[in-house]
Design goal:
This protein is an alpha+beta fold. It has four helices and ten strands; from the N terminus they run αββαββββαββαββ. An eight-stranded mixed sheet has the order 4-3-7-8-10-9-6-5, covered by helices on one side. Strands 1-2 form a two-stranded antiparallel sheet.
Length: about 300
């Protein structure tokens, strides 16, 4: 047997071995992910109340945009001070400029009802429950003393590469800050675990069908409407702190919202009022040349 043929056979053998190794790794990973998903299905069965308790919500009626307001707000560069406002934010339900659905239309969305006593009994780090109708996002949200603990731990505190959906450790839970930050892993395009499906929000037609979401805490329920989807570089926080949680004034808050919308992938015609609250869902997104610094933000305003 000549030397070239030996080299070719060796190369084919190495390729076959690599393919087998990749296949085995894929099977192990698939089984691992299936186990994680089963865990969360079990949790949901334990803490989500019967269908009789599910209610229907609708998009809010239109409200004036900043341009239509009788007292327009001058938009400046965002104040990224982290000094909390001296006044407590109002809890009144903000409206948005998104059109209200016609009576009898299919624009209604379902909510789930959560037994937080049962959920907290399983994990006393429980901070809330996040549910996006029409998606696989239907998870408990935790909050630890740092943003590292749940990166690789499940809700049951077991080692897990998919981690758990968690609230930023600096956010207040009761009352919520003006901007609540919630993190979750992007497990890849073929996965529906955690925040993997958020990348679909980069397409406007997906946002149109999944505008509302539910984020409840043990202290209050909340319905939110997505006002901006942004793909940003976490390395640019010094120029624009898109993870800012509180604001020195309502004007600073509105300036922040306008800066977010200016960086959005598309226009939504949804706005936040001066006394509004935001919920920012954050996951990694290395596409479009961002690499490991890429972050996808799905930012929603509370509507009730």
């Amino acid at each position: 047997m000549d030397k070239k043929r030996i080299i070719l056979l060796c190369a084919m053998g190495l390729l076959l071995a690599a393919a087998i190794a990749l296949g085995v790794a894929w099977v192990i990973e698939a089984n691992e992910y299936a186990g994680y998903e089963a865990d969360y299905v079990d949790i949901a069965e334990d803490v989500l109340r019967p269908d009789d308790d599910i209610v229907i919500i609708e998009l809010a009626p239109p409200s004036p945009t900043p341009e239509q307001s009788a007292t327009p707000v001058e938009v400046a560069e965002p104040d990224i001070s982290t000094t909390p406002s001296t006044s407590t934010p109002t809890t009144s339900a903000p409206s948005t400029s998104a059109p209200a659905p016609d009576a009898g239309s299919n624009e209604t969305k379902q909510r789930v009802s959560v037994d937080f006593d049962a959920l907290t009994a399983q994990n006393n780090d429980t901070a809330g429950w996040l549910y996006i109708p029409g998606t696989k996002v239907n998870y408990p949200v935790v909050q630890a003393e740092d943003n590292e603990y749940y990166l690789n731990r499940s809700f049951k505190r077991k080692e897990a590469s998919c981690g758990t959906i968690f609230m930023d450790y600096q956010n207040n839970l009761n009352p919520l800050d003006r901007n609540t930050i919630v993190f979750g892993h992007n497990m890849g395009g073929s996965s529906s675990l955690m925040f993997s499906q958020l990348t679909k929000y980069k397409k406007q037609n997906y946002w149109e069908k999944h505008q509302t979401l539910q984020f409840d805490t043990p202290y209050r329920t909340g319905t939110w409407q997505v006002l901006a989807v942004c793909h940003l570089d976490v390395g640019t926080l010094e120029q624009f702190n898109f993870l800012q949680q509180d604001f020195i004034s309502d004007d600073a808050f509105l300036s922040f919202v306008q800066s977010l919308k200016a960086r959005a992938l598309f226009e939504t015609d949804v706005y936040a009022p001066a006394d509004g609250r935001l919920l920012t869902l954050v996951t990694c997104d290395r596409s479009s040349g961002f690499g490991k610094n890429g972050r996808l933000l799905v930012v929603a305003v509370q509507i009730n």
